[in-house]
Specification:
By secondary structure, the chain is α/β, with parallel strands linked by helices. It has helices spanning about 15-25, 45-50, 60-65, 80-90, 110-130; strands at about 5-10, 30-35, 35-40, 75, 95, 105-110. It has a single domain, classed as CBS-domain (Roll). The chain has 5 helices and 6 strands; from the N terminus they run E-H-E-E-H-H-E-H-E-E-H. Keywords: CBS domain.
């Protein structure tokens, strides 16, 4: 997981959310309240909830466009369970929470893909090193 999560409050203007995503080079902002994730705003949420509706990004807030049926995972989740969670939730990003429900990080489908690809590459190298030369 990544621990450097970009966060905002529910009253953050949509324009400010977009600027945060641009400046931090991320595709989402986790909306928190008292350190706990309560929603997420993605670049797609901004495109559909602000741009496509010709809404004013200075009057639309995170509360207006965020996904509030948030899927989160515990920080001690295993890779196989994480894969199942991503498939079941049909999302690309999930906040990670600690035992108290506080935001601990975020994991993306891309992060998981890179991890699994790296592991597969390392495994292939180990197998290849054990193959005798012909």
């Amino acid at each position: 997981m990544r621990t450097d999560v970009v966060t905002a409050r529910t009253d953050t203007q949509a324009g400010e959310l977009a600027a945060k995503m641009r400046d931090e080079q991320v595709g989402s902002v986790v909306i928190t309240e008292d350190g706990r994730p309560i929603g997420i705003v993605t670049d797609r949420d901004l495109a559909l909830g602000v741009v496509a509706e010709s809404a004013d990004p200075q009057t639309r807030t995170a509360a207006d466009v965020m996904t509030d049926e948030l899927s989160t995972v515990p920080s001690d989740i295993g890779v196989f369970e994480l894969c199942d969670e991503f498939a079941d939730a049909r999302v690309r990003r999930m906040p990670v929470v600690d035992d108290d429900g506080a935001l601990a990080g975020i994991i993306t489908l891309d992060d998981l893909h890179v991890l699994l690809t790296t592991e597969q590459h390392d495994l292939a190298r180990a197998v290849q090193s054990a193959i005798p030369p012909y």
